[in-house]
């Protein structure tokens, strides 16, 4: 039997039982589409998170005051204070390292922002002019915090778009005087709408010079120091040097934690990839069920087509050839189901993409390959038993009966 | 046709094709097993998280400084704020209605030192009732004494791990040690608590809150923990707390987070995740349904003659339809039961083999899964059953 004949034979069988074929295709395509859509969701979430981190700036490192002996993160590190604060001078000492390009000190607090009779409690960030570049933010109007001596507490502020809308309404905020706590600040700039960025909404903040924030919150302790390494290769060096510099300033005590953005990124990447694989795998269970269906239908087909198979064998077809017929049929069905499933999955993914335009849903390449491949492999695996049964039919017995 | 005959007829047609029945039911069984297993893990996680929280008690309320109209949690308020919560606020809350205990808290990171050994730990500045509000137990000695929180003596209570690392093999009670550079005397050691949601609660020390505020040079507490009478209505308790604090501050510049609300939020999120995973597993159930549809379609075409005969001797269309629907439902129900046993079995094995993974089979989901299996079977059976019922008896008989 030549290969084109084999294909033609299988094709005839597939076409002969329309309803049956369509149902198997349906089962297979549901499985493939499910894997594609679900893994696209997972991949979309992964890319979204990675993009969010990417928008924080590249080659970014973060100094956090405090350290635990056991490693890992403790509640004290996340929100607590330390006896020895991380000061502004500590931050600027980091610039002594050759690997550090820019630094931005950060003080975070909550304050009630007042203008006229309107009050809004919002997040107040104290930082310097460098923050704009380190955090990759953009301005909508006006200027950012002025460069110059970070110890000089200038009464100016830059506000996020939500704060501007809620407090000023239709009024032009530039040049207006706001009151935060017991101090007055002049609005000199508006940050462009950026939305949520890793739990930190820049639309919701008011930024003031770091010295003003120190005075406002009556503290000399920084919440974080953000700094940027000169290049990707120098991130590790920058981390080491930062630890050394700060240890030297803190009487030889290593009481800070430096985290690199790469480390956070890699962790998130790992977790989300694993998650995508897991849900993709769960969806792939349905492919196994579809495989069981193919096996079931083929077993029925073998008993229905006894005479046909008997005739083939009587004409000299070997067991291998009979098996090949069934495998070809299974592969044809799986390929068809896979193709339909891929198209359906793609459509589903686009539909979800329309619902949530901000999240970049794309099916990962491995899912696009693995889903139809799994379909074909399961189809072949599950048709082993029916194909064997057919191949082992005795031609004489098969032809003699009815 | 009597019901007994009806059942026997359906049963015969299923048992005549053992392998076929087995495989069709297997399709459904795999789907159900997947759903049961996944929801078991989801439900187990849910319970695990809830347990982690409720070990601190359920009649607990956290009050944090700062009220952000937009941010959900008061997490940021714990850092810096222009509206501090003071120790006096915590004391005043003790007189709010239904309040049992009110304990101020500030946390941070500090060095502790004893006999040349030093260690960096999480430091909690607390009142003398902290262990009671959060239901923590002491292994040795007492918790901090009931001093005036603004001028408390320099006593420290150690977490289990700190005690073990700094005082290996000795009794730390009464020993002098340094906390953040100041001298303290050890009065107690907490019982080990282990990790709670990734935070090590044993690598901690507890000192009086007034001293901690001084050490960190800060004005505001991070949080006030309040417990209330378990029978008191939560809304009234919250109202009382707000009235007291608004009276002191002039306006509502704090966030009140009852533990119960937090539990509800966590519960909702975890339930949503469990449901989503179960739905993904349920896709297999759908495919299993397609399997039933296919097999029944084949069965109808195989048994055309038989159906024709039944119709010819007086079976109604309705009866034929019920026959096939019954067959589909039995197939699905059998598969569902097998899947339930399989899923619960694997979950049980998992629970024994991987004790770290919390597993709990939610029986509500099991019932829902079984019912949905039968419904899927019925829906899948409708088309072939109708097809069978509408066969013309004459044509059907002649087809043989």
Question: Overview of this structure, please?
Answer:
The complex is a heterodimer of chains A (402) and B (400). Chain A is an alpha+beta fold. Chain A folds into two domains: 3-52 and 268-400, no CATH class; 83-254, no CATH class. Chain A has 14 helices and twelve strands. Chain A has helices at 3-16, 18-54, 75-79, 88-93, 131-134, 161-168, 210-217, 235-249, 261-304, 306-314, 319-355, 365-382, 384-391, 395-400; strands at residues 60-65, 100-115, 118-127, 139-142, 156-159, 177-180, 183-191, 196-197, 200-201, 205-209, 224-229, 256-260. A six-stranded mixed beta barrel of chain A has the order 2-3-10-5-7-6. Chain A has a two-stranded antiparallel ribbon with strand order 8-9. Chain A starts with a helix and ends with a helix. Chain B has 400 residues and is α+β, with helices and mostly antiparallel strands. Chain B has two domains: 3-52 and 265-398, no CATH class; 84-252, no CATH class. Chain B contains twelve helices and twelve strands. Chain B has helices spanning 3-16, 18-54, 87-93, 130-133, 160-166, 209-216, 234-249, 259-302, 304-312, 317-353, 363-389, 393-398; strands at 60-65, 99-114, 117-126, 138-141, 155-158, 176-179, 182-190, 195-196, 199-200, 204-208, 223-228, 254-258. A six-stranded mixed barrel of chain B has the order 2-3-10-5-7-6. Chain B is elongated. Classes of the chains: A alpha+beta (402), B alpha+beta (400). At the A-B interface, α2, α3, β2, β3 and α7 of A face α2, β2, β3, β9 and α8 of B.
């Amino acid at each position: 039997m030549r290969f084109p004949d084999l294909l033609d034979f299988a094709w005839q069988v597939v076409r002969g039982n329309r309803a049956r074929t369509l149902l198997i295709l349906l089962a297979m395509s549901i499985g493939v589409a499910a894997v594609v859509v679900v893994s696209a969701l997972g991949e979309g979430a992964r890319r979204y998170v990675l993009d969010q981190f990417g928008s924080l700036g590249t080659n970014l490192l973060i100094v956090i005051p405090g350290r635990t002996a056991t490693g890992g993160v403790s509640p004290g590190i996340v929100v607590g204070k330390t006896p020895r604060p991380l000061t502004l001078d500590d931050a600027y000492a980091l610039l002594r390292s050759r690997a550090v390009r820019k630094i931005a000190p950060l003080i975070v607090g909550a304050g009630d922002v007042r203008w006229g009779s309107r009050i809004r409690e919002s997040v107040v960030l104290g930082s310097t002019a460098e923050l704009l570049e380190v955090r990759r933010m953009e301005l909508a109007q006006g200027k950012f915090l002025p460069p110059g001596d970070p110890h000089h507490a200038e009464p100016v502020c830059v506000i996020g778009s939500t704060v501007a809308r809620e407090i000023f309404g239709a009024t032009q905020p530039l040049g207006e005087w706001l009151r935060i706590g017991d101090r007055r600040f002049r609005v000199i700039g508006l940050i462009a709408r950026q939305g949520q960025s890793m739990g930190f909404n820049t639309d919701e903040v008011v930024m003031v010079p770091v010295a003003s924030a120190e005075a406002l919150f009556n503290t000399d302790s920084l919440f974080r120091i953000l700094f940027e390494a000169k290049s990707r290769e120098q991130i590790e060096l920058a981390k080491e040097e930062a630890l050394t510099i700060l240890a030297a300033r803190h009487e030889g005590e290593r009481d800070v934690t430096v985290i690199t953005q790469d480390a956070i990124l890699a962790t998130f990447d790992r977790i989300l990839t694993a998650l995508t694989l897991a849900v993709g795998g769960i969806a792939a269970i349905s492919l196994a069920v579809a495989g069981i269906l193919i096996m079931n239908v083929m077993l029925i087909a073998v008993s229905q087509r006894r005479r046909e198979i008997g005739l083939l064998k009587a004409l000299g077809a070997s067991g291998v050839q009979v098996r090949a017929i069934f495998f070809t049929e299974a592969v044809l069905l799986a390929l068809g189901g896979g193709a339909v499933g891929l198209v359906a999955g793609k459509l589903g993914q686009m539909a979800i993409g329309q619902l949530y335009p901000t999240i970049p849903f794309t099916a990962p390449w491995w899912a696009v390959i693995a889903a139809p491949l799994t379909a074909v492999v399961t189809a072949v695996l599950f048709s082993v038993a029916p194909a064997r049964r057919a191949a082992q039919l005795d031609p004489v017995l098969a032809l003699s009966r009815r | 046709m009597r019901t007994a005959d009806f059942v026997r007829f359906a049963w015969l047609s299923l048992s005549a094709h053992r392998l076929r029945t087995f495989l069709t039911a297997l399709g459904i069984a795999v789907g159900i097993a997947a759903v049961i297993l996944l929801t078991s893990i989801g439900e187990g996680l849910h319970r695990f998280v809830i347990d982690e929280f409720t070990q601190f008690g359920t009649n607990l309320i956290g009050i944090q400084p700062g009220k952000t109209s937009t941010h959900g949690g008061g997490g940021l308020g714990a850092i810096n704020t222009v509206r501090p919560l003071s120790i006096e606020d915590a004391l005043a809350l003790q007189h709010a209605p239904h309040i049992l205990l009110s304990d101020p808290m500030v946390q941070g990171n500090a060095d502790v030192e004893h006999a040349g050994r030093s260690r960096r730990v999480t430091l909690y500045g607390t009142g003398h009732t902290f262990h009671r509000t959060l239901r923590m137990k002491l292994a040795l000695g007492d918790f901090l004494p009931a001093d005036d929180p603004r001028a408390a003596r320099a006593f420290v209570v150690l977490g289990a791990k700190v005690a073990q690392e700094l005082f290996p093999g000795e009794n730390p009670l009464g020993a002098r040690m340094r906390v953040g550079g100041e001298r303290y005397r050890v009065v107690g050691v907490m019982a080990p608590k282990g990790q709670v949601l990734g935070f090590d609660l044993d690598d901690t020390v507890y000192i009086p809150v007034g001293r901690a505020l001084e050490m960190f040079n800060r004005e505001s507490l991070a949080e006030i923990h309040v417990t209330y009478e378990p029978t008191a209505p939560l809304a009234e308790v919250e109202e009382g707390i707000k009235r007291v604090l608004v009276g002191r501050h002039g306006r509502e510049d704090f966030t009140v987070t009852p533990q119960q609300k937090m539990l509800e939020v966590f519960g909702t999120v975890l339930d949503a995740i469990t449901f989503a995973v179960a739905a993904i597993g349920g896709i297999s159930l759908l495919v299993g349904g397609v399997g039933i549809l296919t097999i029944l379609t084949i069965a109808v075409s195989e048994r055309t003659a038989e159906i024709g005969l039944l119709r010819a001797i007086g079976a109604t269309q309705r009866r034929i339809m019920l026959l096939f629907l019954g067959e589909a439902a039995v197939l699905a129900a059998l598969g569902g039961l097998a899947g339930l046993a399989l899923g619960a079995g694997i979950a049980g094995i998992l629970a024994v083999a991987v004790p770290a993974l919390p597993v709990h089979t939610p029986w509500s989901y099991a019932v829902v899964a079984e019912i949905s299996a039968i419904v899927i079977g019925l829906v899948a059976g409708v088309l072939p059953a109708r097809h069978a019922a509408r066969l013309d008896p004459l044509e059907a008989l002649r087809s043989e």
